[in-house]
User: Which sequence fits this backbone?
């Protein structure tokens, strides 16, 4: 069992904190909101649920959903302008406090860079600290696929990004915060903390769920927007 003081020590010793975005930093799932704009919400929402649970490989799920949505550049721009993502209560304060302590903050998302960069700007996180998927469009603005070379486009991608950050910046301890299967894939090499239990793994990278932070670290109003988070699988 991990004590209150141990969790505090863990956070105060971190060199960097990496956040998932959809249903973590923001209340929404970006791809589901895009599906609403394009009129295919119901079918895509179920596919998103399966992808988050790890029932299907992430790249396969992303490919299938985007093939159904077929978002144009104009529709993506309209989503951001007319239905901007809503920050999770307390996330702005959490990021600000980390930055005040000179802890580097990164966003690592399986969502779309155009949306994630909008979130990053609200949190004063530079674009260089954003890792997300890129949509591709034809010259007339129609959907042309996504950049499959991005690490976040496939299962295990977030772990690859964390490994890259550790090697590039020589971080000794990185915390990854998220809610889905692609976040859990940071372990291994991470030490995972789930329901306050530590499992064997590398001592450098930690995967910690938001409810643990809310209860044991900042004690802010960083509320949980998904009711299932109290029993994260």
Assistant:
């Amino acid at each position: 069992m991990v004590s209150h003081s141990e969790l505090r020590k863990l956070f105060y010793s971190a060199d960097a904190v990496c956040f998932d975005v959809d249903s973590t930093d923001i209340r929404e799932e970006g791809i589901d909101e895009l599906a609403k704009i394009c009129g295919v919400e119901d079918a895509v929402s179920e596919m998103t649920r399966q992808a988050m649970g790890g029932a299907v490989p992430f790249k396969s799920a992303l490919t299938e959903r985007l093939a159904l949505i077929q978002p144009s550049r104009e529709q993506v721009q309209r989503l951001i302008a007319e239905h901007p993502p809503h920050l999770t209560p307390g996330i702005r304060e959490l990021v600000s406090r980390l930055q005040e302590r000179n802890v580097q903050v990164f966003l690592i998302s399986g969502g779309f860079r155009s949306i994630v960069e909008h979130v990053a700007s609200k949190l004063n996180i530079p674009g260089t600290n954003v890792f997300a998927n890129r949509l591709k469009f034809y010259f007339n603005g129609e959907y042309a696929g996504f950049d499959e070379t991005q690490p976040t486009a496939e299962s295990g991608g977030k772990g690859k990004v964390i490994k890259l950050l550790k090697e590039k910046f020589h971080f000794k301890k990185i915390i990854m915060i998220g809610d889905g299967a692609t976040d859990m894939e940071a372990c291994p090499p991470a030490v995972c903390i789930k329901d306050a239990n530590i499992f064997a793994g590398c001592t450098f990278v930690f995967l910690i769920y938001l409810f643990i932070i809310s209860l044991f670290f900042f004690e802010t109003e960083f509320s949980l927007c998904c009711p299932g988070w109290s029993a994260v699988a």
